[in-house]
Here is the input.
Amino acid sequence: MAEKYLEKIRNIGMIAHIDAGKTTVTERILYYTKKIHKIGEVHEGTATMDYLPEEQERGITITSAATVCRWKDKTINIIDTPGHVDFTIEVERSLRVLDGAVGIFCGVGGVEPQSETVWRQSDHYKVPKIAFVNKMDRIGADFFKVVEELKEKLNANPLVLQIPEGQGEEFKGVIDILRDKLLIFDPDTKGEVIQEFELNEAQKKEARKWREKLIEQLADLNEKILEKFLAEEEISIKEIKEAIREATISLKGVPVFLGAALKNIGIQPLLDGICDYLPSPLDVAQIQGIDPRTKEKKVFPISSKAPFSALVFKTTFETGRLLSWIRIYSGKIKAGESVYNSTQDKMQRVARIFTLHADKKERLDEAKSGQIVAVAGLKDARTGDTLCSKEDPILLERISAYRPVISMAIEPRNSQEENKLLDALSKMLQEDPTLAMERDEDTEQIILSGMGELHLEVVLERLRRYFNVDFRAGKPQVVYRETITKKASAYDEFNKELGDNLHYGFVSLEVEPIGEDKDNVITFVVNTEGWPPQWIDSIYQSIKDGLQSGVLKGYPMQGVKVAVQSLGEIKENSSEIGYHMAASSALKKALEKAGPILLEPIMNLEITVPEEFVGEVVSLIGMKGGKIENMFDRGGGKIIKAFAPLSKLFGFSTDLRSATQGRGNFIMKFERFGTC
Ligand code: GDP
Ligand code: MG
Here is the structure.
């Protein structure tokens, strides 16, 4: 039996182009749900959800990854979603843990390219959505144009539930076409008091027109509505709402609301819409993962009585303390308990549990299935880790396996700056699993690597602005991999004095290419029975380490199978070290003979462009050494899917912009290391 409390939870995110009004809308939501007692305004620098400058200066991130509020009998967790899309994990990780989203659009600007990208990504994650057309008070606002754009640009099926009474300067209120009422939001009470008016004849006619359209749309999607529609029977509001909910959750429709957040118009009906139409944790499929011991598929029901499972979707530092943000899928945890981090194979203690509202915390004794909470005390937990119980472990799908493809050398100005830099980086590395750092052994430089140019730019910006570090940065460089192209074998006999002892070892092995993008495989063909297991481990480790730096330029190797064929005979001076060294040299010799080549990051491009620029984009891709994989129509334009080597894609956004007079738009994702 499904638990009742779960039906009452909404875990939602906001998808919006920068400036569409996400902060302003959120601020009203918090106000009407009594989370805050005074509305802060963005333009006055007082919005609750925005950073405070002094915090930025002190270098502490206090953005909450989720804020909780209550509306009627529902609990709404608002998960912070960034407005921009780059290679960073930000968007993806929030999409992974939310159940539904509100797309906020500007009544004048409509569907802007940035929101288009995030919207499409959320479609990919099958996130049900509703739309809110904001800024209806601005001159030039056109609700119906935005509805058309939802269809054309986002391929959505907009279910219009409200129409505006006046637009732009004339905007007065919201007409609810289901209930046939005009809603006026009393400015003297900051919109808290809503007056309802009967519709006049003209308004009634308009409302009826839109309601009929809505019912036709629903009849297309819903048997029950279709039957009644054909029989010309009365369809109750309850039935319509149920059909809207079904359509929304099955991603077949997007309910559309409208208002002007700054004027406190239209927020409460939007809150009702979130509760009425967006899914509860129960509406989302069961949680799937694998058993980390057997690697077999495992499924837990969404229930607080099931075994515990949760995903760490973000880590933040707050006054020096690490907070892990988790979405609990099943079971429950209590403060003070230990949980099993199945990703890292470690027990970790949950010292405290919190829900957060902007910078204010509320401590909880326990948290359960469906909830999103912050946990203090999980040492070393990273984004994407699964938490569960040791007795009944599960490993949830990781937030995509990202591989760094761009690196950059950075040099602090002096040793004091270096300490600051390392300190800041250690925090950022923990927050962002797509960021990596290493030291160049020759130059002593710090090398940062990440998901792309933009990603590293954002990282550098944060180091400068939030952490106040002074450093020089080199040019971004592509990160390569290495592989081999043919079979080869080699052996090495090690016989040397190290320290005071003589060490002996013999290893012969064969290397073989198994496909550019395959993981390496190490096997022992030789019978290792009777050999000390730690020697075998040491040989294995030596080969594994050896594959980490290729023979061409020292990049990690992939797609290599190594078969250890012979270990010779045990002699008087045979030792673990001797075999370790022999394995390492034999591997090197074999790899050098095996036709090593460099593999470069090949990126997957999805370009959206108006029809008339297709020719320009096709030739641009050709110039970049790319290959077009697929092309199809969407709305008024075309989507072009292509692969291209990252080394040629520096500055691609500028190139695309100039080739398309700014009308082209793209998402770039790492595809594989390979040759194009
Ligand atoms: P965000 O970037 O999506 O978080 O957008 P903000 O909430 O920061 O809003 C961007 C700007 O638009 C701010 O100056 C707001 O005051 C303004 N704004 C937000 N909502 C409305 C609205 O309904 N009408 C008008 N005229 N301005 C608005
Ligand atoms: Mg904002």
About this structure: Residues 22-23 surround magnesium ion (ligand 2) (CB under 6 Å). The longest strand covers residues 597-610. Confidence is low (pLDDT under 50) at residues 49-62, 84-88. DSSP finds 16 helices and 38 strands in the chain.
